[in-house]
Amino acid sequence: MNFELSEEQKMIRDAARDYAQRELITDVIERDYKAEYPTKHIKALSELGFMGMMVDPAYEGGGMDTVSYVLAIEEVSKVDASVSVIMSVNNSLVCYGIQKYGTEAQKKKYLPDLATGRKIGAFLLSEPEAGSDATMQRTTAEDKGDHYLLNGTKNWITNAHSGSVYLVIAQTHPEKKHHGINAFIVDKDTPGISLGPHEDKMGMRSSDTHSVMFTDVKVPKENRIGEDGFGFKFAMKALEAGRIGIAAQALGLASGALERSIQYAKERKAFGTQIANHQAIAFKIADMAVKVENARNLCLKAAWNKDNGRPFVIEGSMAKQYCADIAMQVTTEAVQIHGGYGYVKEYHVERLMREAKLTQIYEGTSEVQKIVISRNLLRD
Amino acid sequence: MKILICISNVPDTTTKIRFVNDNTAFDTNGVQWIINPWDELALTRALELKEGSGGAIEKVSVISVGPQTSEPTLRKAMAIGADDAIRVNADPKDAYAVAHQLAEAIKDEGYDLVISGIESSDYNGAAVGGMLAEFLGYASVSSVSGIDFENGGFTVKREIDGGSEMVAAQTPFVAIIQKGVAIVPRIPSMRGIMQARTKPLKVVEGAVTDNLTEFVDYEMPPAKATCKMVDPENMKELVNLLHTEAKVL
Lengths: 380, 249
What we know:
The complex is a heterodimer of chains A (about 375) and B (about 250).
Chain A: H1 7-34, H2 39-48, H3 66-79, H4 81-101, H5 104-115, E1 121-124, E2 140-143, E3 147-158, E4 165-171, E5 181-187, E6 193-195, E7 209-220, E8 224-225, H6 231-267, E9 269-270, E10 273-274, H7 279-307, H8 313-338, H9 349-359, H10 366-378
Parallel strand pairs in A: 1-4
Antiparallel strand pairs in A: 2-3, 3-7, 4-5, 5-8, 6-7, 9-10
Helix pairs in contact in A: 1-3, 3-4, 3-6, 3-7, 4-5, 4-6, 6-7, 6-8, 6-9, 7-8, 8-9, 8-10
Chain B: E1 2-6, E2 9-11, E3 19-20, E4 25-26, E5 33-35, H1 37-51, E6 59-65, H2 71-80, E7 84-89, H3 95-106, E8 113-117, H4 128-136, E9 139-150, E10 153-160, E11 163-169, E12 173-177, H5 190-196, E13 201-205, H6 235-244
Parallel strand pairs in B: 1-6, 1-8, 6-7, 7-13, 8-12, 9-12
Antiparallel strand pairs in B: 2-5, 3-4, 9-10, 10-11
């Protein structure tokens, strides 16, 4: 076994850390408060190549592995999970989906812009009545010969406003249930697309989330991904890869909270000594550190499996569920360690706690991950 | 025009410092190595100058004296944007040895501007830049807080008592830089990291040099003393403490 990261992987981790600790930290609290999109940061991170890290260099991507991607997402998420979710959706759902399943023409047309952040992608699967139960797609894609006609509403769409390339999942053959679903690449400026109001969220407030309405939206046939009826499988495959990104995000929230707690416990004094010298605090730190270490190992294992062409579905779900659940626990303990200071925005940990909650919900809830894990283990 | 940045491979500034061998050597176990912060600023500025020169500055190179384990630091400099790197294969012993070995490695390479950080963040010797200029027979400009390239020549901003002065410098020369040449060090991009894989890293043997110093003993600075509050009415106590504890009177 070799747990040593390569020099390149370390460089990528350090680059992400430097950007996060130097730049994101300066306005993260204000952007969270104002729910303001991180325009300048996404531009800077795009120039550094963080928006298409795993895309083939032939399409202007970074050509990096999933392990590097996990390291970068963790570092960014320690400071700003809003920025990391924008990165994650673009990298591991949209870019990954098009690179893995798109035609050569689709890749040539869309990947260079997405990989360089000139355009941002969004993944439109969830609906008002189809969250975890993604088979119940009400959005329809009617086959009109040379094009499809899209109608319906998508909910909770990250990058809906900032993004301009949509991956849309919609039902073409309702009688075939989920085998009748298709996936499409849709340019946002296509007539008939409108956005609902900005969602006022509990956390990740600096990322833009909207519902998206489709009214007779014409999508050229060549924009369908894969064969007719491949859409549901496509969505599941994209989510399988995307989970590793969200797991890494949850890991970053937890490890960021742990780092802040260690620092605070050594500075803050109570009863005549640093609170780190009180066993009540020291043991909390130990428990948090064990969880973070476990989470990191699960994440890296899933990423390593993916990079080495091994199955990563169970590992990805384990990582997503565990990282999200411990992110909630660790960030909550971080607030407890900080006491009153933890409850105010200046000390960051209350925000990490608000953001951690979402990692248990989106891109497959913790409960859905348990379904995936158990079904894979119990299958005959 | 060709620019060369001298890079010192130093422990990360947050490293916990420990000594071994009876306090005669620095314990490098588990240490993260980085580009000396001043050198990183110099590299950043050199790349900005190259990019703005319309091709007049054709190359930015980096050089370091160190064993093979220091190569990741040079690779990182190339990921940030340096075109190539030279590693002088020798243990960086002291300022004299490093300056001598750098000079021997580059004296025939024709660099127009050689930049050295004012000091390395580990030993803080602040001597290599000046010595290197002497060995090379180049002019040197110290206390540099800004470098510009206009009309085919370099102008350098020096910090002096009460202000600064601008110096037009004839090449070749050595600039010994401090903070101010660049605001923040450049972060390597994915593309840069990928390209660094294939950029040339030349290894040259370190010239034999005189042994002028040896490390006899390291010691940690005394722990930071706590602040003592003295009643403003009690001048006697204050004088007593300054005399017996602080020993400044």
